[in-house]
Design brief:
- Two copies of one chain form a homodimer.
- With 441 residues, the first copy, chain A, is of the alpha/beta class.
- Chain A is built from 21 helices and seven strands.
- In chain A, the strands form two sheets. In chain A, strands 1-2-3-4 form a four-stranded mixed β-sheet.
- In chain A, helix 18 runs antiparallel to helix 21.
- The longest helix of chain A has 31 residues.
- Chain A is elongated, with a radius of gyration of 29 Å.
- At the A-B interface, helix 11, helix 12, strand 5, helix 14 and helix 15 of A face helix 11, helix 12, strand 5, helix 14 and helix 15 of B.
Chain lengths: 441, 441
């Protein structure tokens, strides 16, 4: 590991000064993020101008927005002017309308134009996450002219490793690797070096698709074009990685019955966590009323065979678990593009085999328990029920994501809760129905 | 979107030929992967040599291993020799020992040495996922000499965008961006251009940490050093992205009570899915016996107040759901590095507040239901129980990942099942204990 410190050696003012002077901007940003917001503001104010500019862009957006309210106006203008175009517009969108007006009037026209253009895109689209920091070349250049142009355009960023070739209308017609330019003979026409028909996305493409394509083609960056094929921005690989991580986190939240939220777990407010968690918790109560109604319907049987109740949680849990296994595996497979809608038929056939095997095994496990608690009749009831509810639970769990996708609903949102509710209700009905059959014979 | 086809227009031989001739290697590989293995082998054999070499490295490892068994030996040697070093060793590790010997003896000494070296690293470590395709420069070069050296070393890969500077012992002392080399005056010493103390990892670092660091520092690649600081390989950003996606998929599997498996959902065999799912399903049955025992203990009460049973699934489900929400959010936060072990105290205080609010709301929802079903006594019992089990379930769910981490166990593996089991057992005990108290007053 590098010897650059990633945090101060202790809490003393001297150790902190040493750290803030020598740490990498990313590490300094991480350390600031872990402080109380007031302390973070105080420490940020102590940094010199250059350092502030370096560090600010590395801070999480939440903290950027907080600091933006605390730093003097001229400092903010200077910092914001130095941000990457995509980071700048993200911060801008977080400010109050008054703060936006105050800030915009002091920015350079180019930065103002950037913000106007980038802020107009739908959230979580390619347009919303792209940056306008990229290198363009004309199709009629030579390799030498192209390298000269890149030297002119060169920023601190790594985006010149792939430059984009446009025609007179700024339509994307090719991309060039810096590597190829450096290796080519100086008078080679750019059109001979460039790769034609580069992979690209339109500005309204969903960010999850953008991330999948960057990963699929191992790209450093993916160009973004408008409806007319004109180049409007690029999404870099690191931003694509951040998108994929955020999308996965969102799916984890949805699968555990939490309405998605953007704040980090560390910073989320009590109110946010409450409101995002209570909705499904409460809705699931009503879902449970179905199983409760089923139990009420069979109350006489419960009085007659109280030992049946012993197995109730076990059966509906097993059904719910099997269904949750299927649902989660399928939601993830659909999200990563591993599985497509048309695969459903083959997958359901395989799931029948797997679920039948699981159900049979579970029935065999539970049969002796049933015999021990209530005799052979209870054993048969419980075993038969286990087989049926595990089989049906798995099939329902596997099919729900496809069904929700077909209905243009997000599979991750409802698969978890629906699987649980359906398993519970179905489990109760099947259990007591089978019990009625078996115990009446 | 680009007009390069990503799949044939129809199933005719002519459409397929057009597609295989014009598609990008990545897209051709995706299409082959979706075919039956035999058909994929047949179509692969029809491609010309250059195409085969291009496409093979883009195929998923499973399919590479399958094709390796089917293609003629000399073709395999040629293809394997052309792979990236890290892809080559991954495939090699999948072959049977006999196939490995056959293949190795026909490879170039350099490729053989690569395989020997890379194959020796522990699975899922930096050493196992790194490649030896990288550019090295000597510290005493000038910018011009460095560019010349890079032209010599230039491969088709993009890894020369960042080259690594080593001393006489091959110890990593700096890294250089191609960008900086191109812009610098020709006689500038490399030591003035290079960045010292670059971020790096050791070869035994876990792959998940490697991925986190590449994402954290927005790196194109991260150098890997051995115990003595000598450069032994690099992990590129695209491989890091693949690792993060695989790690997230693994966490999804674990959180839904599935033992992790590497095969894609589309290709996984019935036996694999069965064995990975049955273990927790069966273990959870035994966990459920605790709650069953609790129910058995209170059988007299159930006979006396049968309406209590109506609320049993609802209560233990709510407790389990609340616990699963907490556990999942915390496991994900720990996995992405958002939250650290030392945050536990602050987080538990916040969780108490959130869980109390959730529990109170849920109790208010369920109280009128209890009154409707069984009168005020049942309403009080059910409301009080709901508050307690949601509160405790949440706290347990939030704490388990920290506890498991502290015990050096993987938090994702057990958090899901343990939360469910604890919620069930605890829910039953608390419910009937409160009922005993309330209904006896």
């Amino acid at each position: 590991m590098s010897s650059n410190p990633t945090c101060p050696t202790d809490e003393s003012a001297r150790a902190i000064r040493t750290f803030t002077a020598s740490a990498r901007p990313v590490d300094l940003a991480f350390w600031l993020d872990r402080l109380e917001t007031e302390k973070a503001g105080a420490e940020f104010a102590k940094l010199d101008r250059a350092r502030q500019a370096e560090v600010f862009g590395c801070l999480p957006l939440d903290l950027q927005a907080e600091l933006a309210r605390r730093v003097p106006h001229q400092d903010l203008v200077r910092i914001v002017a130095g941000l990457n175009a995509d980071d700048r517009v993200d911060l801008f969108n977080r400010l109050t309308p008054e703060a936006q007006v105050r800030l915009a009037q002091d920015l350079e026209p180019k930065a103002q134009a950037d913000i106007r253009r980038l802020a107009g895109y739908a959230e979580e689209s390619a347009g919303a996450i792209m940056t306008s920091d990229y290198a363009v070349l004309d199709a009629d250049m030579t390799a030498r002219a192209a390298l000269d142009a890149l030297r002119q355009q060169a920023t601190g960023s790594e985006t010149i490793y792939r430059s984009y070739v446009v025609d007179a209308d700024h339509r994307l017609i090719g991309s060039v690797r810096l590597h190829a330019l450096v290796l080519a003979a100086e008078e080679t026409p750019l059109t001979e070096i460039m790769e034609t028909e580069p992979v690209s996305v339109t500005s309204d493409t969903d960010q999850e698709i953008v991330g999948q394509m960057v990963a699929r083609y191992d790209l450093l960056a993916i160009p973004v074009v408008d409806g007319g094929g004109r180049l409007v921005g690029i999404v870099t690989h690191d931003d694509a990685t951040d998108v994929m991580e955020a999308e996965a986190t969102e799916d984890f939240q949805k699968m555990s019955h939490v309405l998605p939220f953007k704040q980090t777990m560390r910073r989320a407010a009590i109110g946010t966590l409450y409101s995002r968690r209570i909705v499904w918790l409460a809705l699931l109560v009503f879902g449970n009323l179905f199983s409760g109604a089923g139990i009420a319907y069979f109350e006489d049987m419960i009085l007659a065979y109280v030992s049946l109740v012993f197995f109730l949680p076990l059966l509906i849990d097993s059904s719910g678990n099997a269904g949750a296994q299927s649902a989660t595996l399928m939601v993830r497979a659909l999200a990563t593009g591993d599985v497509e809608m048309k695969d459903w038929r083959d997958l359901i056939l395989r799931e029948v085999a797997v679920a039948a095997a699981l159900g049979a095994t579970m029935a065999a496990v539970v049969f002796p328990l049933g015999a021990w608690r209530g005799g052979v009749d209870v054993a048969i009831t419980v075993g038969l029920t286990m087989f049926v509810v595990v089989l049906i639970g798995s099939l329902v769990g596997m099919s729900l994501p496809f069904l929700l996708s077909r209905l243009r609903l997000d599979p991750a949102t409802a698969s978890g809760p629906l699987v649980t509710t359906i398993s519970d209700a179905m489990g109760v009905l099947i259990y007591f129905s089978i019990a009625t059959l078996v115990l009446s014979l």
